[in-house]
Amino acid sequence: MNRLTVEEFHNVEKLPLVVVLDNIRSLNNIGSVFRTSDAFRVERICLCGITATPPHRDIHKTALGAEESVQWSYHEDAAECLKALKSEGFSVFAIEQVDNSVSLEKLSTGRQIDKPTKMAVVFGNEIEGVQEELLPLCDACIEIPQYGTKHSLNVSCAAAIVIWEMFKWLKIYD
Q1: Is 0.90 topped by the overall pTM?
Q2: Of 47, 106, 131, 134, which shows the fewest CB atoms inside 10 Å?
Q3: Residue 24's closest CA among 165, 173, 154?
């Protein structure tokens, strides 16, 4: 199936995308985000606050080894993590429903957000979302349009949707 080894994965070009998981409680959600990040060659994952870190059997259960291929780091303070990413030249976007958020489906038009060269996306707690004090540190908020009775998605599902859309938008390799 032409899959990369972990060593090959470490050496191939990555999508200029960092995923920030802040205060994610579910180890299965964390593992799922690792697996999706591996699938689309995300540059790295930043685990913040109460978010658990590998190695952990419950993360591994859903990551299926992606926690070994995808680079990750732990940051006690999410605000400091976002400031560091901005100093590295990343545009930072919270995935959150707020006033003036940009619809994910409208990103590719380039009318609301210029296409960054390096992007970080922040996903917050399963119940509380992205911490309000982090929002001013972000360049914008992006929301996933939803048309049913519920207006929230499981964080790992939301991450998969957003990572796929960022992959299409930022794709730099074939």
Answers
A1: yes
A2: 106
A3: 154
Q: Which string of DSSP letters, residue by residue, matches 84-115? A: HHHHTT-EEEEE---TTPEEGGGGGG-SSSPP
Phi first, then psi: give them for residue 89, nearest 5 degrees: 95, 10
pLDDT in tens, 130-153: 999 999 999 999 999 999 999 899
Q: Give yes or no for a contact between 63 and 28, defined as CB atoms under 8 angstroms apart.
A: no
C-alpha to C-alpha distance for 23 and 129, rounded to whole angstroms: 9
In the 8-state DSSP scheme, what is residue 70?
Answer: S
The domain defined by 6-170 folds into Alpha/beta knot (3.40.1280)
- Do residues 61 and 28 touch, judged by C-beta distance below 8 A? yes
Burial class (CB in 10 A: 0-12, 13-18, 19+), 68: middle
Per-residue pLDDT at 25 exceeds 70:
yes
Q: Give the number of C-alpha atoms closer than 13 A to the C-alpha of residue 154, restricted to the C-beta side.
A: 10
